[in-house]
Specification:
The protein is mostly beta strands. Helix content is 0%, strand content 64%. It has one domain. It is elongated and about 60 Å long. The termini are close together.
């Protein structure tokens, strides 16, 4: 998925307008049609998020997750210095038949973190961030989806 940072307030090393690429993998437990839930594995700098997205309407899914980010305190970097709750929404923009199965072929997504929680003993002003993503289905010649899509 190609993304653009839309908000980056007090996030070290991140800037509004910054562009990047992230690997997102969607998995449905349903054999055909829209599922009530889909699994999302999202690769990001520093980790992988795994969450369940719930169907809210036709082609529209949303879910929440949490990860930990490093934060400097007393001259040291604390690996789990802040908790970062986030919401991801996904809208299916296109579909195609792949081996006789309806498959999402184009998606638009948003990532939103409204606030972070400092887990250190140091005083730190919490930041927040958001981004928009879009992507298309990528498959390998043998029909498998790549790990980085």
């Amino acid at each position: 998925m190609l993304g653009t940072v839309t908000v980056a307030r007090l996030i070290r090393g991140e800037h509004r307008g910054e562009k990047g690429e992230r690997a997102w993998t969607f998995t449905s437990a349903c054999a055909a049609g829209e599922c009530p839930t889909i699994r999302l594995v999202r690769h990001r700098t520093g980790g992988i998020d795994r969450l369940t997205l719930k169907r809210r309407s036709a082609g529209y899914y949303t879910g929440t997750g949490l990860f930990y980010a490093p934060l400097r305190c007393a001259g040291k970097e604390v690996r789990k210095g802040e908790s970062v709750p986030f919401t991801i929404t996904v809208q299916i923009m296109g579909a195609e038949l792949l081996k006789g199965i309806d498959t999402a072929s184009a998606v638009h997504a948003t990532y939103t973190n409204r606030s972070r929680t400092n887990l250190t003993r140091c005083v730190a002003i919490p930041g927040h961030d958001a981004a928009v993503y879009s992507g298309t289905l990528v498959t390998l010649p043998n029909g498998q989806s790549p790990a980085g899509s």
